[in-house]
Amino acid sequence: MALVITTCTGSKTKAAAERHRFSALERAPVTELGVAWRARIASGERIPARSLYAGRAFKIPARIGAAWGARVLVVSAGLGLIDAEALVPPYDCTALSGEVDSVSVWIGVEKGPR
Question: Taking the complete model, does pTM exceed 0.90, yes or no?
Answer without folding.
Answer: no
